[in-house]
Amino acid sequence: MKKKIVILPGDGIGKEVTACGKKILEQVAECFGHQFTFDYATIGHEAIEATGNPLPDESLEKMKNSDAILFGAVGHPKYDNDPSAKVRPEQGLLKMRKELGLYANLRPIKLFDELLAASSIKPEILKGADILFFRELTGDVYFGERGRKDQGSTAFDTMIYSRYEVERIAHKAFKAALTRGKKLTSVDKANVLESSRLWREVVQEVAKQYPDVTVEHMFVDAAAMKLIQNPRSFDVVVTGNLFGDILTDEASQIAGSMGMLASASIGDTVGLYEPIHGSAHDITGKGVANPLASILSAALLLDISFGLKEESETVIKAVEQTLKDGYRTRDIADAATPHEKILGTEVMGNVVC
Amino acid sequence: MKKKIVILPGDGIGKEVTACGKKILEQVAECFGHQFTFDYATIGHEAIEATGNPLPDESLEKMKNSDAILFGAVGHPKYDNDPSAKVRPEQGLLKMRKELGLYANLRPIKLFDELLAASSIKPEILKGADILFFRELTGDVYFGERGRKDQGSTAFDTMIYSRYEVERIAHKAFKAALTRGKKLTSVDKANVLESSRLWREVVQEVAKQYPDVTVEHMFVDAAAMKLIQNPRSFDVVVTGNLFGDILTDEASQIAGSMGMLASASIGDTVGLYEPIHGSAHDITGKGVANPLASILSAALLLDISFGLKEESETVIKAVEQTLKDGYRTRDIADAATPHEKILGTEVMGNVVC
Ligand SMILES: CC(C)[C@H](C(=O)O)[C@@H](O)C(=O)O
Ligand SMILES: CC(C)[C@H](C(=O)O)[C@@H](O)C(=O)O
């Protein structure tokens, strides 16, 4: 199989972890006789520094002409602490999602048995938890109108959803539920928000086409609680952009560490794969970041964009074996387990390869 | 001391638990020689059924003329599953918060040592966690303009904050931080939202008046994760209405159960005290609801609205002793602890009294 992959390292630890993700893709190409060619593109703080633009047209063109994208992270503390900054790394990310039509963000939350001890949640609560999140990615308060009024003393953002946006992600989530535990939880705040009432209305309608799936509607506050109280009670979860952002980061604790979680953003054309962790500037350049989320993102890429199931599973098994052999990065280490070997980013990546 | 208290049972388990909260107030009045008079008012589904209005003027008048309010909960599944309902119980709650100017919702999250085992989070992660949330309660997407467009196929809500709204709650949170661990975490989503950028700007400004408090700004997704990963790293948390709704429900898991958490809503005039749990229709009328959140709400009422510190502490100690003696309601029971005695709502309330 011949494929073109764009690597988009971005900011912070993005570079370090995508280097490992790329290496695993090269390894897979070699072992399974595929031809993957790689190209690089810039985004985020790095792109602002070089061009003034958080998503240069050239990057977007490269991505549109590729078969899949492996992305790192964007963000920089410089902007975070300056509420008046006009250009921000995150604008590049949001523009990319919108321009590439990446409306469905899939975030599988699954705990490797070896990491049961690494989570702050009790093993008996976690064991067997396996959740697939569908976070809507191109709508909601991320893309509604925003601004200031009253000489800047009032600020607003608009949460907004249209029927077709809810429909298309609902269909994707229901279809996924059919291949899994046949249960779908739709999360909203319909007791307060009009956009959530539309969300619920549409999910109820779409549900009629999937009589085999049990549907449950849950308020976001209750969902935030139940995820920790009883993670096993969830199968597929579908929710809007903002609630999805919050709940999936929270759910990372079910998987032991944010450093373990991969995500796939898909839509009408090319797919994008990224860790759910961010740029993590506090550990950037130290070589301690966990590369497994990027490696697992590469596994999702092989499966979803290229249909290479065997290759994808081989990568996941390699990660599993690495954990079984006692190799850990700092974030997933458990002081109480003496046989563990703590590795840096690159070596951990090499062990998996 | 002579005081007028309005009891607002509301819907679902609201009646059962406020009955226990009231009983404890009566007990306190008797033991400490105070004169508390009680009046009842209606709100929510119950009020809709009786008058068509989720917050009748008569209720509002009674509350305005009282010294403190003990509230239960509102909500009914009938409306939740009908996105097109025009009148909803929650409207009564929101109107009450707005009309009474209850802009600061205090939610103390503290684990009773006896309940260490009841949480799904590991005891070694929880032990010593003690967080005080300040949730803004009369702004944000709860009160911004909302509606439909394009023949109903698009729905929107407006997240909106003004400078003075952020200032007044920030001051309350900073002042509380001074009396505690001197650390304040402000939670927003300033990398995306304009209302969050205003929020951050104002908190940064107010911070200058409290040089002894260490301030940290955190994105809501990161906060949702860190609350579980390392709850002890938080002291006072201040955040907007929506993020506060989600994070405090999540944080209930730190306290073992939502059934343990009390809250105080304060502003310019009368204070309102309520459990953070909702109407819980699944257990309504079964007599199994945990009354401790309502009892602890009564303790907050005595302390904050009446300045009766000793009385308030006596109530908290009674709760502690009840737990030490092994009495539990279902939600905080731990199957692994054989000496526990599982009680219903009323008996549990009586034991505390
Ligand atoms: C960086 C930020 C804008 C982004 C988001 O909120 O979507 C991130 O948190 C994510 O989840 O991908
Ligand atoms: C019932 C609902 C409107 C309310 C809210 O979202 O504020 C509740 O969840 C709460 O936290 O008091």
Automatic annotation (TrEMBL), chains A, B:
Record's subunit section: Homodimer.
One GO cellular component term noted in the UniProt record for this chain: cytosol
Family assignment from sequence similarity: Belongs to the isocitrate and isopropylmalate dehydrogenases family. LeuB type 1 subfamily.
GO molecular function: 3-isopropylmalate dehydrogenase activity; magnesium ion binding; NAD binding
Role description: Catalyzes the oxidation of 3-carboxy-2-hydroxy-4-methylpentanoate (3-isopropylmalate) to 3-carboxy-4-methyl-2-oxopentanoate. The product decarboxylates to 4-methyl-2 oxopentanoate.
Binding site for substrate: 97, 107, 135, 221
Keywords: Amino-acid biosynthesis, Branched-chain amino acid biosynthesis, Cytoplasm, Leucine biosynthesis, Magnesium, Manganese, Metal-binding, NAD, Oxidoreductase
Cofactor note: Binds 1 Mg(2+) or Mn(2+) ion per subunit.
Cofactor needs: Mn(2+); Mg(2+)
Keyword Membrane: no
Top-rank taxon, per record: Bacteria
Site label Important for catalysis, positions: 142, 189
Record's keyword annotation contains Manganese: yes
EC number in record: 1.1.1.85
Residue ranges occupied by any Isopropylmalate dehydrogenase-like domain in the UniProt entry: 4-352
Protein's cellular compartments: Cytoplasm
Alphabetical list of Pfam families matching this protein: Iso_dh (PF00180)
Main location: cytoplasm
UniProt-recorded name of the protein: 3-isopropylmalate dehydrogenase
Catalytic activity: (2R,3S)-3-isopropylmalate + NAD(+) = 4-methyl-2-oxopentanoate + CO2 + NADH
